[in-house]
# Entry
Amino acid sequence: MPTFDPANIFMWAYKFLGWWLTSLGLAPEFVLFVQLFAAIGMLATVVLLIPIFTIWLERKIAGRFQDRLGPNRTGPYGLLQSFADVLKLLTKEDITPHKADKWIFNLSPLFGVLSIITVWAVIPWASTMVGADINVGVLYLLGISGLGTIAIMMGGWSSNNKFALLGAFRAVAQLVAYEVPMIITLLIPVMLSGSMSLQSIVKAQGDVWFIVLAPFAGVLFFITSIAEIGRAPFDLLEAESEIATGYNIEYTGMKFGVWMLQEFSHAFAVGPLFATFFLGGWHGPYATEIPVLGIVYFMLKSFFGYFMIIWVRSTLPRIRIDHLMSLNWKFFVPVSLLALIVTALVDKAMSEFAPGTGVAGRAIVLFTANVLLVISVIIGIRNAAHAARVEEEGDDHADHHGDAADSHDDHSAHPAPAH
# Structure
């Protein structure tokens, strides 16, 4: 029987389950299968239960931002409001459009939720707690996240509704486009750590977080991640005034609730990913010695990222779809490439010409390079805006002179009568 370890209770429970099943005389292969199945079930349960709290939390925080109370009637402080919503959705009529592709129509919400649950398989919760520490964890995240986009397309196409299909097309245009700068910025933590394993990326931040080494990349990753989840100001996937909620317009009852579960789960998942890549993950005082503390640090950082998402959603208005795409291809993609090139050149130059530079020196040099990069981008934006303003004023001035000339010609063609 394994010795009880309160500092690493989850690993102790995993080993205890294996010891108990082995003592029953079961085959080692079956014991390992049960252990893994139990671990997967526990992780999936936690991930699916978190939105019950985050939905309430988002409503309360958004209420404070917008000078209102938020849910406060159902249960103490409105804590049971999410449960009431689930019961309401379960009692709603389940409608499937007559000419819809029923199999794809019913499976697409499940695929959407599955794409979020499977993301957590490679996210490290603590120094000894990670579902699968694979050496291509970043590639796995990028590949599995595409399943959510496919699920949205499946839901819009199978509904046999033009508004749903338009919403799905918008999803493909927006999500695929914003994946480009997001992937580029993810290359920077991979480059700084020398690994695509998420656990290795977190361990590489033991001395200094990557948000210090690459703050510009961290901000770009956070913004493009908000666009990936379709939250304001990038919520064109569900522009109610234009396409009547978009791809999920034909979904009712609990199937609509599953879509909402996918949205809120995806929104919260950005927090852990941001914490893993740029905020040191589970790192903190005594996190290595006491893995449970690592889980606490990781969740605090994750909820900080989620709070920032709520802040942005409650503050900024929705932007137009053409502005949304122009912002990505004309700004985010070029500056993310620029951030990658600058970080790579500076880090390589330091390793070649100043190999004895310590952790603090490396952090100062990379941080300074990012500050100079941000200043350069701001100057470039200001100059471009000034040039566009001068061009617009020149056009207005030319139009004014043209109108004056036309007026003069009219007066010349029709002279005033003599008195």
Q: What stands out?
A: Residues 1-91 form one domain. The chain has two domains: 1-91, 97-385. The mean pLDDT is 86. The chain is about 70% helix and 0% strand.
